[in-house]
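Hello again, I could really use a second opinion on something today. My current little project is about how a certain protein chain folds up. You're getting the sequence in one-letter code plus the fold written as C-alpha cells. Here's the protein in full, and shout if anything looks odd to you:
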Amino acid sequence: RPLASVIDTATNKVIVNNPADSGPFGIAVSPDGTRLYVTNGYASTLSVISLFARNTAPVASLTPLSAPDS
C-alpha cells in the first residue's frame, strides 16, 4: 500500500509513514499547518493526515470530473 511520509526537514528523517490510497499525486498543507491533504489519483480519493497527531483520518471519496461536451 502506498505511504505518505512526513519528514523532519531539520534532520531529514522520516517521523511517520501514513497509509495513502492508490496513486498519491498532489499534496497541500492546511493554512494553519496542522493537516496534510493528499490526492490519490487512481482511487479518486483524498487522504487527510493530522501532522500533530500523526494519523490519517478516514479517506474521502471524490467524484472525478468529466470533460465538458464539445
Strands lie at 3-8, 13-19, 24-29, 35-40, 45-50, 55-56, 60-61. The chain has a mean pLDDT of 78. The CA atoms of residues 47 and 59 lie 5 Å apart. The two ends are 38 Å apart (CA to CA).
